[in-house]
## 1
Amino acid sequence: MTLESLKPYEHYFVPEIPRTPTNRYASIILLRETKSYAIFTTEGGEQQDVEEVPAGLTHTEPVTRLVMFKRKQVAPERRTGKALLRQYGVFPFAVKDRQVVYGEEAQEAKNRIEDCYLTGDLCTYCPDCLIYGYAAVEGEGARKARLMTDTCFTVRPYEVIQRQIKFNVIDEAAHTSGTITEYDYTAPGVFLPAVETTVDLTADEFVYVLSNILRTTRYGKEGSRQGFVRNHVLAIAFSDVELFANLEFTQAYYDAFVDAGVDLARQSLTLADFLNHADAVIRRLTTDLPGRLTLVAGEELEKILADVRALNRDEERLARFLRDLNSRSALFTSKMKER
Ligand SMILES: [Zn+2]
């Protein structure tokens, strides 16, 4: 276990990557906030993705909300982690005599893993493959993700957070100002409450997931028009059941704001507004939980986040951490293949 601040919660993690589920849940409760214009569409879509849903849990009038699909949340975070593994010399690696080797030694190995790509060529050995899962790979079968989330929704209605922006596309070669293109954007300062639930992770695997969330800042339509999104972690929860859906999280926030007299169609919201209601909203959603719950927020949470940031700032320590993490995943896969 790498982080001192996670020691008090050690028993909520698995000591080794497990073969069978034990449903040890560690949930990361967060807010995703757009810090620039962003576009959330499915591939090829002209309009952003929206859904009509009941506004709140108590106030159930229908409202149209912008949605961010699961893949749009998790894929950028996977890419962040994978790029880090590459930068810190995890690839290439090889399993030799039940040991994982790196660098020159790996270069000489016949069965070395050169890289791991989303989604075309997943290696089935690295931490990314073992945590986030992979669909069937030839001769390998599939591996279920040990991280779950679902579509998340804005709190405010779509009409007030959406912007239609026109661009005059200049053709540089022809020196003509060509077609006027219109894009459907999400405005900056829009909040989407979300939970990422990890299942049966080791403490270090959990740190890897948390790091990816803290490091990832680009979400939305792939390519140059991706928007800057800041993730704010509100709490970490350890439990033996899943806590709540992202939609319920948004709905509970909606109720809290409406009950506090906020006009969501007119007033924009700040991070402070969300933080003011966070405790009450999370408490409301977890009061009747049919399972055990340990909620980590405030100072205890800050300690963990500070610890994760410190690890990520220390080049040598991070390199060692990533290799150790990878060695344990790679050995797990190689043992599974021997069976
Ligand atoms: Zn992999």
## 2
Amino acid sequence: MIFNKEINCSASVAFWNYWDQEHLEHIHDGYEKFQIIYEDKDLIFSVREVILPLIRLKITTPIFMKQLDKNNLIAFGIIFGVLSETKVFINDIGHDKCSIKVIYKFYLNGWKKLLRPLLKYLTKKWFQKVWEEDFVLKTRRQKVLKYNFKDFVGLPKKINDRINNDEYILKLPLARPKNSLAPLIKIKREDIEFKN
Ligand SMILES: [Fe+2]
């Protein structure tokens, strides 16, 4: 399944939205008990409880997400025991505008092929819902970055300083608030030691 969209924000801002884990529970109805198991510079492994749209069924799914390069992100999850793959391509198409292409793929075999129509239906509903909920986050961030907004600092006090035409560059991992709603619960990269 392929979805194509355009939005008035840069590709970096659109990708920021994927990496901003804190908004999930606040903005998206249906995300619960979100926990990050492992996080590295450009990848995250998390477990989340998701309430599926319409049928309101609660499922627990692991999500692996990695930024492959400036314009590509890939994610994997498991729903009803079916492996799902999500590829996200985002490209700038002019000044503070980008195109977003999302390709969903479900690896179905045996009896699981029966789930195809349901998964297709749910994916379409899910994508549209999440798109609408995220829309304002992306356009608003683009706007405040132009006003020289800095994360964890805010807007400059002086009105004259509220201008910034620099290109926003996504830096991963994103800085996290101390009391994040998306806590890293298990291991951080620096916790790993390889011993003989
Ligand atoms: Fe979102």
## 3
Amino acid sequence: MHCPRCDGTRVRVVDSRTARGGRAIRRRRECADCGERFTTYESVEERTIQVLKRSGAAEEFDRQKLIRSVRVACAKRPISASEIEHIVDQIEDEVFKMARVEIPSELIGAMVMERLKSRDHVAYVRFASVYRNFQDIDEFYDELQQLRQKREREQAAKNQVELPL
Ligand SMILES: [Zn+2]
């Protein structure tokens, strides 16, 4: 296995575990020459999972594409690249465990939202606005209001603690 960055051959495995619901082995590798870390998969050659889009079109489940869309939602938020990878790992695992040939894109969107919601509200709303297909602008506004009220309540609770009476 050559390093994808410097083409060096002194690459060692730093972590190895199962992925995709036990159908694959995921290995984190590190290049001794340039320090680059990358991931490889060893898996049984098998059918792919089709993601069914709202338009009715289907496309192959693409891990990199999912990482890119989560990355966009997390831009300039305090979420590291490895956290994003971890989120996508979990989703990929769940998707493959379902043992279905086709999965609606909404379902994958919901999995991402579920994880972002507890992690970062801004990233969650960004992602949700694209994927959840809000019925109308009011619904989107309600969602934002709820988040704002929650933040205000948290802020108020914090101020109460900080202000000596
Ligand atoms: Zn290298």
